[in-house]
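Summary for the funding panel

The consortium committed to producing paired sequence-structure records for every protein in the target list. Below we show the first two records in order, beginning with the earlier of the two.
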Amino acid sequence: MSNPESLLVDMDGVLADTMGGVFDLLDDDHAHEDVYDYWFDGLDKKSIIEALRSDGLYRHLDVITGAVRGVNRLREEFNGNVYVCSAPMSGAEHCETEKREWLEEHFDAEFAMQAIITADKTTVPGRLIIEDNPDVAGGMWRPVMFDQAWNRHVDYPRMYGWHDLQVVRDEYQRATR
């Protein structure tokens, strides 16, 4: 269970390449850089939402480069006080199960079991959250943006990939002051 000192990590767009999975499912030639709006403004929202609700999508997503190594390193540095904090897709009953299966495959059973899958991340205690949603706010944690085309307009501390762990360390220290 997370606590006020926890480091939280979003899953979709931070650990797992959800948009890539959606584009693959739709046989769409869009690239991540084509998504300038977190809520898919300018794209076929209906098709994207249907894809996000598809059985098997979350179970078979690609891992974002460096995510497994980066998170495991943080788990060591933070003595295991690192938790996935992810929202389920509304209308996708299989979403939570598939996310946990994905986490178990790419990390381990304990990490998957401890993942916090909730529609309201603001209720989850933690010091920092690594997130790609530019509208994240309201929690007791401070956000660190995981760089994606759709969040470049917000002014939060930013990771430019999983090689950029020092940003997390620095922001964690700032949040303790």
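The next record, for a separate protein in the list, is shown here:
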Amino acid sequence: MTMAVQNPEQGQHEFVKQSSLYQEFLAEREEILKHKWIESERLGHDVGFERALLDWIRKHRESWRASRRQNAAQSDDKTSG
């Protein structure tokens, strides 16, 4: 009988990928990339990730996070009630 041995690093990698912190990072990164695309289209040239990141943080991050928290709270209310 053969037993599959899981690599400890692979298990840690899967744990990180499933963590809520990593999921928030991915969602935020996706929003920054959308902002980069929109601003690049608007200005007619690639604005670059760093500029898009800083602009998004200044203009949108606070409201985006508040919206995420509100949506998470509403989802929690629906599942617990």
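Regarding this second record: The chain has a mean pLDDT of 87. The longest helix spans residues 20-43.
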